[in-house]
Give the backbone structure.
Amino acid sequence: MIDTAVPQRLPVGRVVATELKPATPHQFHFWTANETSIGIGAIVRVEDDATATGAAGRVVYGVVTDGFAYSDLATPLQDVVGAEGDPVKAVASPTVRQEIRLWTAAVLRQSPEEPLQPVPLGRVHVASDTDVAQALRMDAYLGGPEPTAIPIGLYTSGGLEAPVYVDADFLLGPEAAHLNISGVSGLATKTSAVEFLLASVFQHFPPHKGRIAAVCFNVKGPDLCFLDRPGVLDDDDRRRYARLSVTARPFERVRYYAPFKADGVNLNTLRTHPELVGDVEPLVWGLREVLDYAEVLLNRDDVDAKADAFIDFLADRVVDKEFEDGFGGVHRVVSFADLERLFRSIFDGLELAGRGDSWRTHHIATMRKVRNRLSNISTRCKGLVTDDGPSNDLPWGRFEDRAVYVIDVANVDPLGQDLVFARAVSQLREHLERRDLGVEAVVVFVDELNKYAPADGPETYVRKMLLDISERGRYLGLVLFGAEQFRSQMHRRVVGNAGTVVFGRMDADELATPGYHVLSPATKIKLATLPIGELMVRHPHFTQPIFVRFPRPAVLRGRDGVERYPPAADLPFEDAVARQLVRLDRRVRPNQVKDLIADRREEDVRRALAHTRQARPHDALAHFQKQLGGRVSLRPRSSRSPAVAALGARRSRCATTRRRARRITTRSTSRTRCASRADRSGECRMSRSWCCVCTTPNWCTDRCRAASP
Ligand SMILES: Nc1ncnc2c1ncn2[C@@H]1O[C@H](COP(=O)(O)OP(=O)(O)OP(=O)(O)O)[C@@H](O)[C@H]1O
Ligand SMILES: [Mg+2]
């Protein structure tokens, strides 16, 4: 809250203008006593003499950008000679040298604004709360019937603290949008600043602007994994929260999403402590979700016009439709496994028909290339992309007001990260365009933005999307909050379009790059030595950058979170499946699940689990059992001896393997290996998926060769 009851203080200085250092409409100089509360970044108010006597005059607000000290000496030589070259004598000198403090300030605002004139030779006052609001033009959005002010931090100078607000119309659209924060690792407090600002936005987002949510990509360790847990604050933090009228509390509605690990059942996140893992939703995408973003996943060299045309053909004509392959087979392709079957059927058909080079105008080499790349995707992004079974996604169309959706991609392969990013942002864009997302505005927070939108490097799909959000997102209510360590390494159009720019402590080398030439040397030095928790803010309403302090975010830091809630070790397959079913239905007992899935192929179990998760049935176990299908072990696990159970498992799986191996008799090496490996290991690893893989000639040969004794 702005404190309007600050008593009028005495002037602390006076404007001076000389021929060499004149006052201009944009800059002025003033002197103060040697002992003064003024420093770099301080906001001051200048009153001309008429205003000081109560008449209508000119008032100028400025921010200090540089400071100098002078004595009456013309050259250093005079001082050396005066002290006879001895510094001890200089200290004991009977005459105290005259010395002044001279400051340079940049004009923030003049009143009246027209005609714009040089700053008068007036008295200089330290700014009060109201002055800060005036100086930063915050009065335009702090008051009125529909205020749009969002607290960002406290301007602090000489014992005075004044809240600084940014304008929601310029931070979150439609007038301007986006925020970019940069600075060195740790000291710049970038992630913390965005966490605090998001809390502030959620609490102060103007009601007339509707509902708002945030989608945060957790790209580093446990950074954003504990946004719903309270963090440790000290008294200073609490005071700052009170001064900014922001309640210090963790986010109330946080939804976590993380892909599985390669085993398809353990979540790939650091939020796996038993108390917390229950509210992490798996992020699982299938063929349809991936195919739309094939461009993200395939190298540019890969996607030539022919491959592109074939991918479009698959997306438009094949996926989710009854499709006749031309050799008598009818396919309904909904998963990677179905697509693989279709490919096999086409290639077999072509081979039998003796027409080896094209199918429906698509060259066989193009088809093989697309097939290999797509199967590569499901291998590299295993856990995120499922070969089979339904997908599990963010609640597009059902976003909740003031909810944070954290997508944890910290441990995902870079290719998978790109896919998650591209798809999530595209979905947001599409739903916001159709106005059916559930909220009117979404803040997308991308930490380590330089990874996705670097200044140089290849033109990737993700970078194109970030440019698109930066340039057009504000119309839609799609707002990008990006953080990176080195702004100079970012794509210019991404950072340049951020209406609000925040700097934490900066590296001196970074400050020497051309992007910082507009800052005065003193401001640069201040930036290079900025204490933790202090930031420099540029906002369209502020004509000069302003330094603010912000309190620690009221959420548990990632580092503290993993200490308080240590991540659980990966569970064995059966336990992980049981845990997920228990999560869906508290009545499920883990032993029942283990009995059900003993002897079942893991991919069948995963598929049944995915279906159950998607259906969220009343009786999860019954649904799961139904999805598992026919051959269900009815014998309770405990009644079978481990040796018998192992034998059963080996037989059933080896049978599958042998059957598959026989089918590919032409590839004798594959057959021998599959059989020998099954016999040798006892616990057969040559399950169906392996043999499916074997049908990919190149890969099969390599893998089999690698596994060869
Ligand atoms: N307002 C604050 N006052 C004091 N300390 C703070 C404040 N905000 C954050 N910190 C501390 O600063 C440390 C670093 O913060 P943070 O992780 O946000 O930095 P970062 O710039 O995101 O680092 P990186 O680039 O490595 O991700 C944290 O340990 C946090 O406790
Ligand atoms: Mg960070």
User: Anything to note?
Assistant: The first helix runs from residue 49 to 52. The pocket of adenosine-5'-triphosphate (ligand 1) is lined by residues 183, 185-186, 188-192, 485, 532-533, 550-552, 557 (CB under 6 Å). The longest strand covers residues 59-71.
